[in-house]
Amino acid sequence: MPEPDTPQIYLVTPPDFELSAFQPQLAGVLDAHDVACLRLAMATRDEDRLTRAGDMIRELAHARDVPLVIDQHWTLAERLGLDGVHLTDGARNVRTARKALGADAIVGAYAGASRHDGMSAGEAGADYVAFGPVTDTLGGQDLADTDLFQWWSEVIEVPIVADGGLDGAAVARISPYADFLSFGEEIWRTENPVAALGALLEGRVPA
User: Fold this and answer.
1) What is the 3-state secondary structure (H, E, C) of 67-79?
2) Rounded Cα–Cα distance for residues 85 and 136 (Å)
3) 8-17, 19-28, 59-68, 198-207, range with the lowest pLDDT
């Protein structure tokens, strides 16, 4: 178990992957690291591809007692037996998703770098609010800076996720204030995702 002040790992799939190649990669990361939550975040809207990916990843995740949420598609979350949904449009659909999935489901919301959007999502009943990106590696977006995470951790009780653009320096900077650190392309684009995640958690640059 992580130390009380240590953020937990929130793992995000790549936006596109082949099931046969990704399955052993994901299993390796889940076995090597204590992952608190996993998110299926494919860019496709093809329900057949999402369903096949969701079935495969659910088996891996639930075998390790890791909850699995899916980007946006709360109808698929219910159909596939997933644990909830991650909404990418702030508070807009939090109440709708909650009503569809029930009180026990995970409903998270991404709020970019906006305190207002984050507070609105929390007030609407989100289980967590994600802010990001935290570095400018994603190209010209407003950044969620350290002050935002520090303010939220001191004022708001809803758990907070640092989501997007995490590098070793950002991990060290944000960790005192975040409940979860979200890792996705930061590790999957490397040759060894297990080692890359380990390096990032230690505040180092992945090899």
Assistant:
1) CEEEECCHHHHHH
2) 26
3) 198-207
**Structure tokens belonging to residue 128:** 């967590």
pLDDT in tens, 108-152: 999 999 999 999 999 999 999 999 999 986 566 789 999 999 999
Q: Would you call 40 exposed, middle or buried from its count of C-beta atoms within 10 A (0-12, 13-18, 19+)?
A: buried
- HEC profile for 172-189? HHHCCCCCEEEECHHHHC
* Start-to-end Cα distance in the chain: 26
Give the pTM. Answer: 0.94
Q: How many beta carbons lie within 10 A of that of residue 116, not counting itself?
A: 10
Q: Where are the alpha helices (DSSP H) in 5-126?
A: 19-32, 47-63, 74-80, 94-101, 115-124
Q: What is the distance between the alpha carbons of residues 88 and 8, in angstroms, rounded to a whole number?
A: 21
Residue 84, beta-bridge partner list: 69, 106
Residue 131 DSSP SS3:
strand
**Residue 2 pLDDT:** 39
The predicted structure's pLDDT at residue 4? 43
